Inverse folding.
């Protein structure tokens, strides 16, 4: 009976998990200062042009980060050699200065939706370069930048 119960729990946990992300990577940044001319780069391959994906940016920063937001310049690189640049503001703290993310010790983890339900029109190798767009250069207290590319699950509202 115990074996059956354990097996049912394991199966239900696995069934509750969604598909593995296409990309789940992170890169460390010099905690002493992230230079604006030093991009954090990610690459991935797309084989299925019909699938939709959610593109998320992860930021890990120290409690000593001096601002309530982080501007990033995103350079998307496409398989055909073209590129596109976007600017995104990541709000890290609320109006009272409390960090929005969660963390352990001195570090705070935050996740930001960059694009939801994006469909890649070409097969091949894509890339994303992330640079900070803050006036403070090098930018202190950013420890890590990550990218997640997950299969879009549609509207999950009840």
């Amino acid at each position: 009976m115990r074996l059956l119960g354990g097996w049912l729990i394991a199966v239900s946990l696995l069934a509750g998990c969604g598909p593995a992300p296409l990309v789940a990577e992170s890169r460390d940044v010099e905690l002493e200062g992230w230079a604006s001319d030093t991009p954090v780069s990610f690459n991935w391959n797309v084989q299925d042009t019909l699938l939709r994906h959610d593109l998320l940016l992860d930021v890990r920063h120290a409690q000593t980060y001096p601002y309530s937001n982080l501007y990033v310049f995103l350079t998307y690189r496409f398989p055909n050699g073209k590129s596109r640049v976007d600017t995104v503001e990541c709000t890290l703290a609320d109006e009272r200065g409390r960090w929005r993310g969660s963390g352990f010790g001195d570090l705070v983890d935050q996740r930001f939706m960059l694009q939801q339900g994006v469909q890649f029109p070409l097969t091949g190798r894509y890339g994303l370069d992330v640079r900070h767009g803050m006036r403070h250069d090098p930018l202190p207290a950013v420890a890590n930048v990550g990218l997640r590319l997950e299969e879009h699950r549609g509207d999950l509202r009840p």
